[in-house]
Design goal:
Elements lengths: L2 E8 L2 E8 L7 E7 L7 H12 L3 E5 L19 H14 L2 H17 L3 E11 L1 H12 L4 E7 L22 E6 L8 H13 L4 E5 L16 H19 L1
Parallel strand pairs: 3-4, 3-5, 5-6, 6-7, 7-8
Antiparallel strand pairs: 1-2, 2-4
Length: about 240
């Protein structure tokens, strides 16, 4: 799949954004892919390429651009004390919900202005950190997203004032959420809370649990699960096919 990098000007700087497109001539429906907490790397390029190969113009921004380039080892990032400390104290806070939702205005402007993108409503999918941001985007920009997916997302329905579930009354997208088993950052109580909020708001949605560990989709994580990763692709591509065609 064709892969290029553009610099998207945000209110806080310049965000390197990886663009993946299908082979052949567009225009195609547009989609944002929000990275996981480990950051931009080849395993995420594989995912963006596969989504693009299904017929989508995919923009994957480096959400850690505020701190400069990062390079975390997916197999050690949460076990190595040095990497974990840097990730949790420097990188993840830079991609807060407030920061990334402010950035998303620029990401949407890029999609709307790209000649190879068709339509005015887009899809968004996210993983781990990005899953939280995907659901938040559906509520922050309700008229711009037709579909929002979250896979092994974290902290989707907490007591925090910026918890994504609080945005449910604003959402117009179809929201699909797939959680992991035994995930303390998105446990059964949060799943029930999110489902209740979406139901009460009349949001078309699915909240379910995959038989996999947190972080199962990217191919380079210690908990990567090939079977449930394919499950993820089936649900994501079905969601986008139904809402973005």
């Amino acid at each position: 799949m064709p892969h290029s990098t553009v610099q998207i000007k945000t209110r806080d700087g310049s965000c390197p954004t990886h663009i993946f497109t299908p082979a052949g001539q567009g225009p195609w429906p547009g989609a944002l892919l929000f990275m996981d907490g480990i950051g931009i790397r080849p395993a995420l390029f594989e995912m963006a390429e596969r989504l693009a190969s299904a017929g989508y113009y995919v923009a994957m921004p480096d959400l850690y651009y505020r701190i400069g380039p990062t390079s975390y080892d997916a197999k050690k990032a949460f076990n190595d004390p040095v990497q974990r400390d840097d990730l949790m104290t420097r990188a993840v806070p830079s991609a807060s919900i407030a920061n990334v939702m402010r950035d998303t205005d620029a990401f949407l402007a890029h999609l709307a202005g790209a000649p190879n993108v068709r339509g005015t409503r887009f899809g968004v999918t996210g993983y781990c950190l990005g899953g939280r941001l995907s659901v938040s985007a559906a509520g922050t920009y309700p008229d711009r997203f037709a579909a929002a997916a979250s896979y092994h997302g974290s902290s989707l329905a907490t007591d925090a004032p910026d918890s994504p579930h609080l945005l449910a009354p604003r959402m117009k997208a179809f929201v699909y959420v797939a959680g992991a088993i035994e995930d303390r950052n998105f446990d059964d109580a949060q799943k029930a809370r999110l489902d209740a909020a979406l139901t009460a708001a009349g949001v078309r949605h699915t909240v379910e649990t995959y038989n996999a560990r947190h972080g199962w989709v990217p191919s380079d994580t210690p908990v990567h699960d090939p079977v449930e990763t394919e499950h993820h692709w089936r649900t994501l591509l079905d969601l986008f096919a139904r809402t973005l065609s």
